[in-house]
Design brief:
There is one protein chain. 48% of the residues lie in helices and 15% in strands. With 887 residues, it is of the alpha/beta class. The chain folds into 4 domains: 291 residues, MetI-like (MetI-like fold, Orthogonal Bundle); 195 residues, Rossmann fold, CATH 3.40.50.300; 74 residues, no CATH class; 175 residues, Rossmann fold (3-Layer(aba) Sandwich). The strands form 4 sheets. Strands 6-7-8-3-9-10 form a 6-stranded mixed beta sheet, with helices on both faces. The longest helix is centred in the first third of the chain and has 37 residues. One of its GO terms (biological process) is transmembrane transport. Its main location: membrane.
């Protein structure tokens, strides 16, 4: 039965939805103004009553202007020319210069930005120096200098217009260059660009298909905003006398210059009409540019509901079939006294509904649970089940499109319905939150100490000196090394685990009654995760804090939780004490969730593969990265040697920074080794350039960690899977189409997914597409870098099952990189353990994971939480003895 979820990404703030109507109005108004000027420019000879230089003085003394009349609607100038005619012909001049300037500057600046950002090196340094020098000039002064240089050889209207356009182009080129170069630097490190390099895509195709297609979304906004700047620059040149030759074409800036003496004599019409034309066209272009900036921004774009009412009925039917007669939510009472629990935080019939353009999305459906002082309640379930939404509702952190009903009580105080001013003193003081991703929860421009102090001073009347002292105490409390100095560190100077400790320090700064920890250990190494869990438990024990732990990691739940609340599609389907839930889960979904969790030490993994031919041979590999100014080089991989045979999976494990991913990237040529050799199927691949590697690229595939970023968002699924076939084979388009459908069938997606785009697929489906693309060329070697770390446990289980089926059928050799030892225990024939760039232990799976010889391996295994509370309690005790013995 396929699982579908309602995406909460559609829940955009109401102010954004309302502002879209205003943005569309502004866009239409801007287009209407521009369209009017375009029509005037095209039909200028028909619309203008006279020529732009025709003398209409009628023999009147030169210098006497005629006021607006039936003959001259806008009056005449000091030279006797018709103002209306000059405004109309000036429109043509302005649009010709604008179009030429924007087109020329984009044709020059965009390619230079792409090449500079992607290739780097001396070309990048030279271009940056040139563009910075040009950008340092005041734009109008630079345009004047270029105009003076160019107009010496230009004559007539065409020459004058072209010279003006080129002078403005020189001003704009650095702007296009800087924006495109910056965007290219960000895009070129995306995994989907690396995946293109892995299959041998040439640089021109990478620049066009993968980079330009993703940075080009900036061009409409830049172009429209630069167009308004071009109008003002052209007018400035004309006003100062450096613009187009007056006899060659009408130009508004020149007319304003000539009208300047008239202002003091009450002759208003010679300046008001060309000035108004400049204002109107700038307004029109600016309205289009600003509206495009908001409308093209994907973060501000609303999407319709992905499911129809029929789909809703089908989902409801599936849910009822799964839940059966089991009560979805039950009131939990103290098992010893059978009396009503004393709760620090209590949710009752909490429901959250999001309003979208296409209707309502029910994210949370009347859930009820509580958490007592000193208790840890784990809220578990897959992505989209409503875990985080319910916790954010408690603190009033949901967008304004959310409608929240029910009750959330902190002691005897009702939190729901509080105004921002009323709930602000509660946030961070009585109820605090540990956010899932510390890198985004911390402000990158302030030191971590400043951010802790800010929270303390928001709730306590305390001097900055005393608040700083308290911040240092908190950092010491959460186990931060050298807190006196690191209090002044910025987030980027800390590791992921250290940043998570800072977030926890901020959460406990005011001794809260309740801490809501939203996935506090996601993406952390097992040893860092163990330390964070120890810290949270010590806080619970010392401060009596109630903890709501939101996670999908059932090992963490077994290690920490007193009780467990299981959520499924916005409903609570089961809640029970942790020991009871793991031992005797009642609900089918709970049983399925627990069955999908790999359990270290209980997996019946594959045996050794000894006789097969050698596919990968790494000998004495060293990889170093240059240090900063005055700093030595950093050695990421230190003399590593390993081998993988056909049909074998080697699990490469270790903490972040141990060198695992660097080995994988070096193996496929994404990173050059400092020394050592790498052979794939008997061919040396180390030290070769991209061009030399291209014929060998078909020998290996790569599955990246993040399925969302490993697929080009601008390419369909069919195009993503077909790209290796286009690059490496001579197959016809019909043969490629058939192969793509066969590959999608092999990963259980089917041909109907060919025309879909990555954002239309779930995380598990995207990872299956990545696997199909990696296997498109039937590689001898597959590098899988954390391919399941971003997936829910049930999705992970299916992807791993599919991976095993394909590996056994196709018999490719695989380097499986992971920090999840339980997953490695499921798949690997052999296991290699990395620490600080060195290989500390390698051997058969059952020996390395079951009877490790090295102390580091023992610590690594001891830190892995298992989904069994009783076993985890014994492991915790054993881990304490182990650390004592090792120390």
């Amino acid at each position: 039965m396929p699982t579908r979820r309602l995406s909460l990404s559609r829940a955009v703030p109401a102010v954004v939805r309302q502002s879209h109507g205003l943005q569309r109005f502004m866009l239409l108004l801007g287009f209407a103004i521009i369209a009017a000027f375009v029509i005037i420019a095209i039909f200028a000879p028909l619309l203008a009553p006279y020529g732009f230089n025709d003398d209409r003085s009628g023999g009147v003394l030169f210098g006497t202007q005629q006021a607006p009349s039936a003959d001259h609607w806008f009056g005449t100038t000091v030279g006797g020319t018709d103002v209306l005619s000059r405004v109309i012909y000036g429109t043509r001049t302005a649009l010709e210069v604008i179009i030429l300037a924007v087109v020329l500057s984009s044709l020059v600046g965009v390619p230079l930005g792409l090449l500079s950002g992607y290739l780097g090196g001396w070309l990048d340094r030279v271009l940056v120096l040139i563009m910075d020098a040009l950008y340092a000039f005041p734009s109008l002064l630079l345009a004047i200098v270029v105009s003076i240089v160019l107009t010496g050889g230009a004559s007539g209207a065409v020459g004058g217009i072209l010279a003006a356009a080129i002078s403005i182009t020189v001003v704009f080129v650095p702007q296009y260059y800087r924006v495109i170069r910056s965007a290219t630097l960000a895009v070129k490190v995306e995994p989907y660009v690396d995946s293109a390099r892995v299959v041998g895509v040439r640089t021109p195709r990478i620049l066009g298909r993968h980079i330009f297609s993703n940075v080009a979304q900036n061009l409409p906004v830049i172009g429209t905003l630069n167009a308004s700047e071009a109008i003002l620059t052209l007018a400035g040149l004309g006003f100062l006398g450096f613009g187009i030759e007056p006899s060659a074409a009408a130009e508004w800036g020149f007319d304003l210059n000539k009208a300047l003496p008239d202002a003091s004599n009450g002759i208003w019409w010679t300046s008001i009409f060309p000035g108004s034309a400049i204002v109107l066209i700038v307004l029109g272009v600016t309205l289009v540019g600003e509206s495009l900036n908001d409308i093209l921004n994907p973060l501000l774009r609303t999407r319709g509901a992905e499911t129809t009412s029929a789909d809703e009925k089908e989902i409801t039917a599936e849910f009822e079939e799964l839940t059966g007669d089991i009560e979805p939510s039950v009131e939990v009472r103290d098992t010893e006294t059978s009396e009503k629990r004393v709760a620090a935080l209590s949710l009752s019939d909490l429901a959250v509904t999001f309003r979208t353009d296409a209707g309502q999305i029910h994210a949370v459906n009347g859930i009820s649970f509580d958490v007592a002082p000193g208790e840890v309640v784990a809220v578990v379930g897959e992505s989209g089940s409503g875990k985080s939404v319910s916790s954010r509702a408690v603190l009033g952190l949901l967008p304004s499109t959310a409608a929240v009903t029910g009750s959330a009580r902190l002691g005897d105080r009702e939190l729901l319905g509080m105004s921002n001013s009323d709930i602000r003193p509660i946030r961070g003081d009585q109820v605090s939150m540990v956010f899932q991703e510390p890198s985004t929860a911390l402000n990158p421009v302030y030191s971590v100490g400043w951010q802790i102090i800010e929270g303390i001073q928001a709730h306590r009347d305390i001097s900055k000196k005393d608040a700083r002292k308290r911040a240092i105490e908190l950092l010491d409390l959460v186990g931060m090394p050298d807190p006196e100095h690191r209090v002044d560190y910025y987030p980027h100077q800390l590791s992921g685990g250290q940043k998570q400790r800072v977030v926890i320090a901020m959460a406990i700064a005011c001794d809260p009654d309740v801490i809501i920890a939203d996935e506090p250990t996601t993406a952390l190494d097992v040893t860092v995760q163990a330390a964070i869990l120890e810290l949270l438990l010590s806080l619970r024990d010392r401060l009596g804090t109630a903890i709501v732990l939101i996670t999908h990691n059932m090992g963490v739940v077994a290690d920490m939780a007193d009780r467990v609340v299981v959520m499924y599609r916005g409903n609570i389907v089961e809640q029970a004490p942790a020991g009871q839930l793991f031992a005797q889960p009642k609900h089918p979904y709970t049983r399925a969730l627990l069955d999908a969790v790999p359990h270290l030490g209980r997996e019946n993994g594959p045996g050794l593969v000894d006789e097969n031919e050698l596919v990968l041979k790494v000998e004495d590999l060293v990889v170093e990265f240059p240090g900063g100014l005055g700093q030595p080089a950093f050695r990421a991989v230190d003399h590593v040697s390993l081998e993988i045979r056909k049909g074998e999976v080697l699990g490469l494990v270790g903490e972040s920074g141990s060198g695992k991913s660097t080995i994988g990237r070096t193996t496929v040529g994404l990173q050059q080794p400092t020394s050592g050799t790498i052979h794939v199927s008997g061919n040396q691949v180390s030290g070769l350039s991209d061009r030399q590697l291209r014929p060998l690229r078909s020998r290996f595939g790569f599955v990246f960690q993040d399925p969302a970023s490993s697929l080009n968002p601008r390419m369909s699924i069919g195009q993503c899977v077909a790209e290796p076939l286009h690059v490496q084979t001579e197959m016809t388009q019909s043969e490629i189409d058939a192969k793509v459908r066969s590959l999608l069938d092999s990963v259980e997606l089917g041909g109907s997914y060919v025309g879909r785009f990555p954002h239309e697929l779930s995380g598990g489906q995207r990872q299956r597409v990545s696997l199909a693309r990696a296997l498109a060329l039937d590689p001898d070697l597959l590098i899988a870098d954390e391919p399941t770390s971003a997936l829910d446990v049930s999705v992970q289980a299916r992807v791993l099952e599919l991976f095993t089926e394909l590996q056994q059928r196709l018999q490719f050799a695989c380097l499986f990189i992971s920090h999840d030892l339980a997953v490695v225990d499921t798949l690997a024939n052999r296991v290699a353990v990395m620490q600080n760039g060195a290989l500390v232990e390698i051997g058969p799976r059952e020996q390395v994971l079951g009877n490790p010889q090295e102390d580091y391996t023992k610590r690594l295994i001891a830190a892995v939480p298992v989904p069994d509370p009783e076993e985890q309690r014994r492991r915790r005790e054993a881990r304490g003895h182990l650390l004592t013995d090792i120390s």
